[in-house]
Design brief:
The chain is of the alpha/beta class. The chain is built from 6 helices and 13 strands. It has a single domain, classed as Rossmann fold (3-Layer(aba) Sandwich).
Length: 215
């Protein structure tokens, strides 16, 4: 199939993908080229592939974010993991302002969970030994996360000092730090681990994604 055929095939498939998810990106500075770049792990596209959604990376330096959100007509958002940066913080602040007002679903992962926590006035604390794998205990929740003990990946150095107002924590590590939480009324869900990096992601996580973004 030639380039034109590939492009046509992609555009044709996009018309069948009615769920449009805006996804945030980390900020990378490349000194050799004097460039500041937005970057997104390609594994995010693999994670969402079973849902037939369109992931649309959101530029961190975009002006007039509300116009961009409205024109793209996003069905929901993902706040990904990665670094903190002033441009990214402003972008994600605008996303949450918009999502709260429009009641759009949001998934916050690692950095995304931390940013959402700070947005809702719950500070973070530094912790040790959270790079690698560790066990968590999942409690009752409304999003289909199975209750019980499971092992998750871990790449973070901060944890929530408390659970934000109007949220309920439903997964905790052995030290009692919250590893997943849900908003009590809005369709906001977070987890501190990276599902996109899990090569053997359980089926229930895709069921959760479909429930959050396509219910």
């Amino acid at each position: 199939m030639g380039t034109t055929g590939l492009q046509h095939s992609y555009l044709e498939s996009c018309t069948l993908m009615t769920t449009k998810i805006g996804i945030t990106q980390r900020v990378e500075t490349v000194e050799a080229y004097a460039e500041v770049r937005d970057a997104l792990d390609q594994r995010w596209y693999r994670l969402f592939a079973p849902l037939s959604t369109v992931l649309i990376p959101i530029p961190n330096a975009m002006e007039k974010m509300n116009v961009y959100f409205r024109e793209c007509n996003f069905d929901g958002f993902v706040l990904t993991g990665g670094n903190h940066h002033p441009l990214r913080d402003r972008c994600e602040q605008d996303i949450l302002n918009y999502a709260v007002k429009q009641q759009k679903p949001v998934l916050g992962v690692c950095h995304g969970m931390q940013f959402m926590s700070k947005y809702f006035k719950a500070p973070l604390v530094l912790i040790d030994n959270h790079v690698g794998e560790h066990t968590i205990t999942i409690q009752a929740n409304r999003w289909g996360f199975p209750e019980g003990i499971c092992t998750v990946n871990s790449y973070h150095r901060h944890a929530l000092s408390c659970i934000p107002t109007n949220f309920t924590g439903f997964a905790f590590d052995k030290d009692g730090y919250c590893e997943a939480m849900q908003h009590n009324t809005l369709p906001f869900v977070t987890c501190m681990w990276h599902p996109e990096r899990d090569t053997s992601l359980p089926t229930w996580f895709h069921i959760f994604l479909k429930k959050l973004f396509q219910a």
